[in-house]
Fold this protein.
Amino acid sequence: MGWAAVTVAMLAATPVFLTRGDVTPEAELRAEAESTWKALEARYVAEAGGVPGRAPMNISLHRGVGMLPSRNGQGRPGTVELRQETPGVLGERLRVALRHELAHQLLWWACPASAEDRLFHEAFALVVSGELVEWREAPYQSLTSASAELARNPDVDTPRARRALARVLNESTGFPRALTRRLKQCQDGARWAVPLSVDELAGVAHVVASATVVLSRHSGEVLFSEGDIRTAMPYGSTLKPFVVAGSAAPPPVLSPRAEVPEWVCGERLPGKVDAKTALVRSCNGYFLDWEGQGSAPRAFGPWGAVLAAVGLSGEPLDMADAIGLQSTLRLSPWGLAQAYRLLAEARPDLMEVLAGSAARGTLAELPASKAYAGVAAKTGTVRDAESRPRLGWIVAVDGDLVVVVARPGKMPRAFAHEVPEVLAKVRKKRSGLEAARVQVLGLVQPSAIEARCQGAGFLLEEGTPRVIPEDFAKLEPLVQKGAVVCLGSPWRVRFPDAPVGRDYAGIFTNSPPPPFKLPAGVPTSPNAFRARRGSDFLFRTTRLQYTAGVVAAEDASLKGEARVALARVVAHNERHAHSRHAGRPVCDTTHCQTFLGTVRIQPEEERALAAPPLRWREWLPFSQGGQEPWSETRLRERVDSLLGLGVTAVRFADGRVHYVRTKREGGAVFDAAESLPCELLRSALKLPACPRTAHFGEREVSFEGRGQGHGEGLDVEAAKASGLDAGRILERAYAR
């Protein structure tokens, strides 16, 4: 395109700038915005090689309200807010802020795919706004410390982070090549699969760093991290299991070629090598020859989407790329842990294979080998041109945890002892990491429930990952095909009664309960029936997360020893749900224990899960309790539907409602004494607690009582007021 044509296209693409008189002088402000836009667009054309094919939106310029003191401007698509210190004066700080915010506006127009990439947006805005000159005068900062600061603050929304970003940008002269590559990607309309990284921006090749990260397999939360867990690095052989998992056909059995160096993978290699042996021994030759046969999956097959979602820097061009023989691609320890969490869920058979790594594979015959019992492990080594180790990796997966350890300059066997140590360290630091399963959302119409993953959501259909749409989607049809897993974030679940939604950190599966029929003559409401039936949705998280969620739902204000006591009961009941749902996990309603999703864990819950198991072997009831008086009225016909007609002499004792009811049989009239569990009456009539008295009128029944709940077991309000420690609270509540 000639320069004249480019100029005409640019002028046609200039947005209309709208002002409202609160930043003055308006005409000068609009003129400044127009000239800035033309300069920004010229830079875009020069670097990207073309002009976007659509017109930009109008942009409103006005005074910011409630802006942080560290900000002179902020914006969203179509709107720029500015801080004007002196009315009528467009000072240099305001002009810089305008240029910075218009840079974001240009990217939102020209490169919408990059909208969520904060580092890319901020780097471009710093470069084109002229702010780098100011930052060059700041005190010296090493590139390492700048990278660490950006890792701590990826949103780049503080002065320290801006300074760190400027330090990285100043590593190169002229317009950063990384930004030029990304702008060309914008113009080509390519998918923005991987966010811009600090390594890419600085132009540092093959950055290696020490890192340790531990994830929960159940909740997905990061339980422990140390070092640069978000730094993308060459990954060595750690992705070989994903090659096997991505194969549509069974992997071949191949003959080793002794003359080929890539087939050197341990002593006494058998005459025929299958994928299992190739994985535990990490045989590069197997994978290269598999590709040579033409049957190997390309770019990890369906698992390529998973790896891209967790940060793999690009698509492998060949098998050498995929298995890390060439260090052309990178992945962070965090991303590797996320990918293995999903792989462990989808392919337990591969985890069984990798459990042999310490017995007969790359971690065999070490002092630490026995400590890997029951642990699936995969090693990886990144070497330099002289075959010296530049970076060693170990990924380990047990029943509850995923561990990734990366160590610069070391072979995996040199730090193999660290993995069992970090597993033990995490378990010592936090108890309750084993799985808890709970039937959830049983009172909600299944078709009304929607879920959204703000990280990377996947459905596991017969062991194969399928990408879940980013927006809210119906949960019911998803779980009917397989487990659904959200990587990097809790699920957000919403339904009509909870339109804002709730967080659920864990895994959803489909598990329809068996047919349920209430015992004859037991009155109940529709909600009570659904609660006793159970739910089609099964949710798995950690016992600690489950316990914290129940305690918060039952009494969020509870503190100290009373909270510890309740948490111990909640955790105990999760393991004793047979009296609530035979052969099924605990439910999330008051029929069992209320659970409304994931909440912040409190110290009391951690103490409770670290305590020894309770000595009782059955379900332990609890209620809010207390002595606060209450009175409620209910329609007489509703009470009669529960107790029957002709009820007299009603009294409440021992957790039951006792009454006399007039009956007629064969022409005879007589009074019969009857009783029901008081909880059935309380829950059906939605009374605060089991009443103490009931007064029957013609149309209404008046109930009076004290406290809240069914009144059995642990009285939470009494526990608050007792001043006792958790152990004594529980003995007083349940001693028999």
In short: The radius of gyration is 32 Å. Confidence is low (pLDDT under 50) at residues 1-12. Residues 448 and 498 are 11 Å apart (CA to CA). The first helix runs from residue 3 to 12.
